């Protein structure tokens, strides 16, 4: 009986120790399994993160995005405007209006007639004091003008007779108007043009005008009057001329 009691006590002690021993031996196994499970979860989580994002659970319902649409391209409008024909830059030429030469021209810039130097003298008036019994006729004016032309020609040829460098090609004197008023001298307007040769020296216009004026002023005015009276034919009204006057217009 005592042996059985000793056995029973020993058995009780062993049975008391076995659970503790079992827990002691089981603890490392459980710990290792737990760690392995945790590692498996971490690996699964890592693979989900690195893999397709659609495998991950989401608390929000997935919203489908509309597909990206590309607007149809329209053909670009040409930036270059249609070329227009440029207007001509040169204006149409207009026929130039004829210009009238001035009545007086300096001899340094004398006009030329057929390549010959020409000097147009200043217009002048010759006044005739005469008996005004009637109006002078056109033919009588023409006769007086003819005498005056001859007188002016002789005046210029004589003035440069001793100047061989001055060579006249022609001298033209014409009547450009007249004025007849009873009680006043009869006025005839003249214009004289001098033409020189190409090898001639051309005097100054002022000198030529002075020679012209001197030919009708005293004492030469009487020379002209006598020539006029001797040259005219009766009944020319200018035969009664008693006084000659002169002035530039």
Write the layout of secondary structure elements.
Blueprint: H1 2-50, E1 112-113, E2 116-120, E3 124-129, H2 138-159, E4 168-179, E5 186-196, H3 205-214, H4 220-231, E6 243-248
Antiparallel strand pairs: 1-2, 2-5, 3-5, 3-6, 4-5
Helix pairs in contact: 2-4
3D architecture notes:
This protein has 249 residues and is α+β, with helices and mostly antiparallel strands. 37% of the residues lie in helices and 17% in strands. The protein has four helices and six strands; from the N terminus they run αβββαββααβ. The chain has helices at 2-50, 138-159, 205-214, 220-231, and strands at 112-113, 116-120, 124-129, 168-179, 186-196, 243-248. Strands 1, 2, 3, 4, 5 and 6 form a six-stranded antiparallel beta sheet that branches. Helix 2 packs across helix 4. The longest helix is centred in the first third of the chain and has 49 residues, at 2-50. It is rod-shaped and about 200 Å long. Residues 40-83 and 86-109 have low confidence and may be disordered.
Protein traits:
rod-shaped, 37% helix, single chain, 249 residues, alpha+beta
**Percent range of helical residues:** 25-40%
| Count of helix runs | 4
The N- to C-terminal Cα distance equals 191 Å
Structural class: alpha+beta
Q: What is the helix/strand order?
A: HEEEHEEHHE
Radius of gyration computed on alpha carbons: 70 Å
Instruction: Please tell me what the overall shape is.
Output: rod-shaped
Low-pLDDT sequence parts: 40-83, 86-109
Structure, briefly:
By secondary structure, the chain is an alpha+beta fold. Helix content is 37%, strand content 17%.
């Amino acid at each position: 009986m005592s042996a059985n009691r000793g056995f029973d006590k020993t058995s009780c002690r062993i049975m008391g120790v076995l659970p503790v021993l079992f827990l002691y031996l089981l603890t490392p196994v459980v710990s290792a399994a737990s760690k392995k499970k945790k590692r498996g979860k971490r690996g699964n989580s890592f693979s989900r993160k690195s893999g397709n994002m659609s495998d991950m659970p989401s608390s929000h319902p997935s919203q489908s995005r509309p597909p990206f649409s590309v607007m149809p391209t329209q053909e670009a409008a040409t930036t270059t405007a249609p070329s227009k024909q440029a207007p001509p830059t040169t204006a149409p030429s207009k026929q130039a209006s004829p210009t009238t030469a001035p009545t007086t021209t300096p001899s340094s810039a004398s006009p030329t007639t057929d390549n010959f130097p020409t000097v147009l003298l200043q217009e002048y008036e010759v006044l005739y004091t005469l008996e005004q019994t009637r109006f002078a006729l056109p033919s009588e004016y023409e006769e007086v003008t003819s005498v005056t032309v001859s007188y002016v020609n002789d005046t210029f040829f004589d003035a440069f007779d001793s100047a061989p460098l001055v060579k006249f090609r022609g001298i033209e004197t014409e009547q450009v108007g007249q004025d007849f008023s009873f009680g006043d001298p009869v006025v005839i307007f003249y214009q004289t043009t001098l033409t020189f040769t190409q090898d001639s020296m051309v005097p100054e216009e002022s000198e030529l005008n002075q020679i012209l004026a001197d030919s009708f002023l005293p004492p030469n005015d009487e020379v002209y009057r006598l020539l006029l009276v001797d040259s005219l034919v009766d009944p020319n009204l200018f035969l009664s001329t008693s006084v000659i006057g002169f002035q530039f217009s």
